[in-house]
Amino acid sequence: MKKITFLILLFFATYSQAQHTVARDWNEMTLTAIRADFARPTVHARNLFHSSVLMYDAWAMFDAQAQTVFLGKTFGGYNCNFNGIAVPVNIDTARHEIISYAMYRLLNHRFQNSPGGSALLDEFELLFTSYGYDTSFTSIDYSTNSYAALGNYMASEMIAFGLQDHSNEQNDYANQYYGSVNPPLILENYYNTNDINPNRWQPLAFDVFVDQSGNEYPLDTPPFLSPEWGEVTPFSLSATDLQILNNGFDSYIYNDPGAPAYIQNSNEDGITDPYKWNFALVAAWSAHLDPNDPTLIDISPGAIGNYDLSNYPDTFAEYQAFYDFTNGGDASTGHPVNPKTGLSYTPQMVKRSDYARVLAEFWADGPDSETPPGHWFTLLNYVSDHPSVVKKIAGVGAVVPDLEWDVKSYLALGGAMHDAAINTWGIKGYYDYVRPISAIRYMAGKGQSTDASLPSYDPHGIPLINGLIELIETGDPLSGENDENVNRIKIKAWKGPDFISDPTTDTAGVDWIIGTHWWPYQRGTFVTPPFAGYLSGHSTFSRAAAEVLTQFTGDAFFPGGMGTFDITQNDFLVFEVGPSQSFTLQWATYQDASDQTSLSRIWGGIHPPEDDIKGRIIGDKIGREAFNLALAYFEGTLNIDDYTTEETVIISPIPFRDHLTVSTNQAYHIDIYTLDGKLVLENQVLNGQNTLNTTHLESGLYFAKFSSQTNNSSIIKKIIKY
User: Fold this and answer.
1) Residues pairing with 489 in the sheet
2) What's the Cα-to-Cα distance from 695 to each of 191, 245, 285, rounded to whole Å?
3) What's the CA gap between 649 and 211, in Å, rounded?
4) Which helix (H) or strand (E) holds 704?
5) Which domain holds residue 682?
6) pLDDT of residue 368
7) Cβ count within 10 A of residue 653
8) Residue 704 sits in a domain of what CATH number?
9) 664 belongs to a structural domain
10) Are the beta carbons of 695 and 680 closer than 8 angstroms?
11) Taking burial as the number of CB atoms within 10 A of a residue's CB, which of 87, 274, 481, 695 is the most buried?
12) For residue 292, is it within any domain?
């Protein structure tokens, strides 16, 4: 096991119990499988959600109040039949058996072709047989009141559901429509970087690509991961928040944040262009990664965190005020006291360079990654094990047994992580936005956009910033033997993986580098995740998870008022030695941890501020919605007829021309309205597939309202005609 994984597991095992529930055992096994698989945040958010649904339903079917999510329900247009089963004499034993058979079958199916290979399947079997269960029992006929057969049946139904939920699992989740508009960036070709669309994502070409889980990828130019993921069946995302937009293919976009900042043709003073400011800030923060820099900052909860969501920036001026361009960090001011102890948080002065480098590594999850969704499950398990936690759902009512706490918390968090993946990657696929490595090298290759009277002026050039981004002059160490680099751009930044021979002893350090040589603070065999930047998955996942943990525990603060992670001098960083001193990462609240995650991606050179804030805002919404829906299942207050996902009604094609096909699982009255509210079509649709004539509709955007004929529920969808 690699160093960082061991450290993370050690941290989250600090308060571990001698005996975990069966749900916890299988959740830990799922995280183990994710670490051994390709690092695919979307795929594994889905795996965590589907496994959480199975475990929750196995518990809920024998609870007098709770409702199941999948078993015996129509979920996302898929009908999972259930004819009932006898109430067992020992409910705990039956739940244990159902969960184990369901999880064993699901994990074997989902990870059978993993890079972890047969070793993973052996681990699944070892856990399964340790309970005394029989791997050869594969029956799904639970009519004999076999709880093992019911577990097998539930897994088989989830597997079947997963083969029609638009994830394209049967083809290893491959893209069907997306294609990059830009040629790959050959990472070691430091000069020919300009023949791209600077607003769009660019693939990276490697000699060898090793993903975030440490797996060597079979292609040297990894494709965009999951650009069509917005169409996958969600948990709590609402059809009223969905748009189907087209940027080369139909993109399913929930909670559309609008377009990111695109590059402007600057008329000098390029720093006033939001695009150039965003990516210049990433370059500027790269200068903070020098272990020889003596700058100290207070990283205690008394100095950082505690920023109100309602005050997040919206305008460009507000972004400029929120992020500290020169010194790093944000406008948060910390917490006056620890509410659990009534005492002030003790200051902790740490080198900024150590803090920034550790954040970039810790929140990236490192080699053997469980990906960001899984990372937040490890945080949840850490919180659940803490002796200060009182296991009351939402902080109210009676203390619940450990199994109930686990399955309910997994459902709420799994639903939020799954929805965050769907929401974020739908946006990523549609806006297809550039990453810092491409944007910075592109602008630096063009020249400077600050002063037309100076050499190398170009409207798409990078802004000049004294001490950070400058022109190379004659006599400069970077000028070259024949002054061939004079008037090129130089950036003061982390020098990159080329300067690290032995990661156990070397650091790259910070110095002036030719601008087209700029690297994120990442391994040279990884560099940047293979998908577009906007929005940040880390920001969205983390804020959604933070909100679920806040709502589920009924407390915004970590147990005891502070979560911690100890960092050991020269024994944490993976691709260079460090940090230069020991210290402790500290967070007062779950939101503080989430906000730190977001900043880590800027110091790591992975995201500009443009990708961050809107991800936090959408994540907050997702976290609240996922928890509220999960709570309705827990309390048995959900009217299934009133709650429908977008899959209850499927419309195609989108955009449409002279006809519209509507597939439903019940009868509806349909009304189609123009944007100004004019009714232009009304009809009835029946259970099954219906074709509507739309030749009389003009091209444009419409709202289709589907009203149930059996209750007062309705679904509203946005549709587009060519």
Assistant:
1) 471
2) 53, 21, 55
3) 37
4) strand 700-708
5) 646-721
6) 58
7) 13
8) 2.60.40.3080
9) yes
10) no
11) 274
12) no
Closest CA to 456 of 467, 468, 470: 470
Per-residue pLDDT band for 679 (boundaries 50, 70, 90) equals confident
Rg of the chain (C-alpha set): 26
Using the structure block, give the residue that is written with the tokens 């109930």: 404
Strand partners of residue 490: 470, 514
CB 614 within 8 A of CB 685: no
Spatial CA neighbour of 587 closest among 576, 568, 574, 600? 600
Q: Concatenate the DSSP letters of all residues of 18-50 into one string.
A: SS--HHHHHHHHHHHHHHHS---HHHHHHHHHH
d(CA 419, CA 237): 6
Q: How many beta carbons lie within 10 A of that of residue 454, not counting itself?
A: 13
Parallel, antiparallel or unpaired: strands 659-664 and 649-652? antiparallel
Q: Which two tokens stand for residue 158?
A: 């989830």
Between CA 189 and CA 148 the distance in angstroms is: 58
Contact of 222 with 204, CB cutoff 8 Å: yes
What pLDDT does residue 207 have? 74
User: Of 135-139, 418-422, 718-722, which gets the smallest average pLDDT?
Assistant: 718-722
Alpha-helix runs per DSSP H in 64-196: 91-110, 117-130, 147-162
pTM reported for the whole predicted model: 0.87
What is the per-residue pLDDT for 7?
36
Residue 399 gets which letter from DSSP?
A: P
Whole-number pLDDT of residue 447: 97
Question: Which regions of 278-374 does DSSP assign to beta strands (E)?
Answer: 296-298, 349-351
For the chain, the residue count is 722
Interval 267-278: pLDDT, tens: 999 999 999 999
Give burial (CB, 10 Å; 0-12/13-18/19+) of 81.
exposed
**What angle, 0 to 180 degrees and rounded to 10, lies between the N-to-C axes of helices 609-635 and 402-431?**
140
pLDDT over 60 at 181, yes or no: yes
Give the tokens for residue 143.
């009519």
Supply the mean pLDDT for the chain: 91
Q: Which helix (H) or strand (E) holds 421?
A: helix 402-431
Domain assignment present for residue 683? The answer is: yes
Q: Is the peptide bond before 88 cis (omega within 30 degrees of 0)?
A: no
Q: Are 688 and 663 in contact (CB under 8 A)?
A: yes
- Determine the Cα–Cα distance for residues 485 and 476; give it in Å rounded to an integer: 9
Residue written as tokens 């399913």? 252
**pLDDT range class, residue 665, cuts 50, 70, 90:** confident
pLDDT in tens, 342-383: 999 999 999 999 999 999 999 986 445 899 999 999 999 999
Model pLDDT for residues 697-722, shown as the tens digit of each residue = 888 777 788 877 665 556 777 677 76
Residue 478 lies in a domain: no
Q: How far, in Å, CA of 601 to CA of 536, rounded?
A: 9
For residue 677, what are its two tokens? 């509210």
166-174 mean pLDDT:
97
Q: Is 419 exposed, middle or buried (0-12, 13-18, 19+ CB in 10 A)?
A: buried
Q: Which two tokens stand for residue 196?
A: 């791209």
Residue 143 one-letter amino acid:
S
Q: Of 137, 156, 19, nearest to 80 (Cα)?
A: 156
Helix (H, G, I), strand (E, B) or coil at 669: strand
Question: Average pLDDT, stretch 297-310?
Answer: 96
Better pLDDT: 214 or 330: 330
Total domains in the fold of the chain? 1
Short-list 399, 94, 373, CA closest to 235: 373
SS (H, E, C) 426-459: HHHHHHCECCHHHHHHHHHHHCECCCCCCCCECC
The C-alpha atoms of residue 264 and residue 460 are separated, in whole angstroms, by 7
Dihedral angle over CA of 639, 645, 650, 653, nearest 10? 150
Q: What is the mean pLDDT of residues 232-237?
A: 97
What's the helix, strand, coil split of the chain in %, to 5? 40, 15, 45
Least confident of 130-144, 484-498, 508-522, 646-660: 646-660
Structure tokens at 274: 């939001």
